[in-house]
Amino acid sequence: MPSPQEKVDVVLIGGGIMSATLGAMLTELQPDWDIRVYEKLDYVATESSDPWNNAGTGHAALCELNYTPEDSNGQIDLEKASNINQQFHHSRQYWSHLVDTGVITDPTTFINPIAHVSYGRGDKGRDYIKNRYETMVRNPLFADMEYTEDADTQAEWLPLMFSGRGPGQVNGISRIKQGTDVDFGSLSSQLLSYVAAKGATVRTSHQVTDLDRSSDGWTLTVKDLLSHETHQVGAKFVFVGAGGGALPLLQKSGIPEGRGYGGFPVSGYFLRTANQDLVARHQAKVYGQAAQDAPPMSVPHLDTRVVDGQDYLMFGPYAGFSPKFLKKGRFTDLPLSVRGNNIGTMLNVAKDNTDLVTYLLGELAATKKARFEALQTFIPSVDPADWELIQAGQRVQVMKKDPKKGGVLQFGTELISSADGSLATLLGASPGASTAVPIMIELLKTCFPREFAGWEKSFKDMIPSLGRDLVDDETLLKEVSEYTSRTLQLI
């Protein structure tokens, strides 16, 4: 391989929220470092970070029922919900810091207040929502949660869903008014504009096609997709934040820490409406319960979205299966990801998840009538003419080795780094974007241990609750909640 034509300190692969967050942090912490960002598409944040490719919930575990499982004894496990909520507090504090320092001038361009609601139908669904509420409200993080099974109150909170319903229906809903809607596409674009203004180079229509070890880091082969020319770039540190495209690059890197990993792609669709009469009657994100054998990302939800200053409603997702790892990927992505070191993992996952595959293929074949019948479980009176079907982004769930089962399918994110800290990759999906800030801090701590000691005070200034438990410190919880709500214009 020829010598690199240029050398930089950091290369970030992918122009989404993860690379944007890491780039913004490093730009502030190490303004002397030379940073390069490569995005395969012609604009940044158009895959998983795009507002129409994700639910934009601002995952704070306020309404997402898969974060609060109930065991056979009726006990609600809050560990995951509590962890995610505190991580989202970290993200809010960092975003507030960006507003305070002028990096972001108008927070309403990416974050807006919207109630988060959980919804259970029938006796069983109602009892679960009530049990969940009674457990969560005792935790300071969720102390503002409300619950009702009263039909009039439900119609007041969610008129589009509950006004005019017939008598005798059994429903339970819980609500937290202090939820948010987040446009991670807008946030990513603003952060990358900031790092570019501070001297980083952001190149779109450029694809990293290969990575090789070098004496002082990595040599990357980069293809200009417009001119079709390739060149080599040397980097001391590489972050692969390419969403579904991260696994192939991790495999090409050859680091032993990446052996055994596979990817399970899940596609999907949403119904969307811009009918302002409907939008005005539903100002909330409402999450229901997943169907049996459905993946966590397929939990049905009816969301208010704010994109480019306009309100929409979005319902779904209708999950399906595609072998593509990216929305604009290739049908060969999945088969080409099979390696000798991960085929056992993937076969064991396939063996244990045949019901899931059957479910996804069934969803893919669902008729228009079936899709609207699903929507009618939320909105009894639906006019299909008000709604359009849009394709969601691809999600690639992590398949990893397991000593007992041989391989497991993991719903979440996985940070993988080389032993020397010169390369890091993020695999997986939800609640990724909402927890990008703590994930990137963990990356910096892992890959730059020597430098992190000098950065720690800066991080604590940016994120006052970092390293502290908000459940045990209600005074701090109140302070950071009020600070971020005020700074991000959420009140």
Automatic annotation (TrEMBL):
Cofactor entry: FAD
A Gene Ontology BP annotation from the UniProt entry: tricarboxylic acid cycle
Catalytic activity: (S)-malate + a quinone = a quinol + oxaloacetate
InterPro entries in the cross-refs: FAD/NAD-bd_sf (IPR036188), MQO (IPR006231)
GO terms, molecular function: (S)-2-hydroxyglutarate dehydrogenase activity; L-malate dehydrogenase (quinone) activity
Biological pathway: Carbohydrate metabolism; tricarboxylic acid cycle; oxaloacetate from (S)-malate (quinone route): step 1/1
Keyword Flavoprotein: yes
Cross-referenced HAMAP family: MQO (MF_00212)
Family label: Belongs to the MQO family.
Record-given protein name: Probable malate:quinone oxidoreductase
Source species of the chain: Brevibacterium sediminis
Organism taxonomic ancestry: Bacteria, Bacillati, Actinomycetota, Actinomycetes, Micrococcales
Gene of this entry: mqo
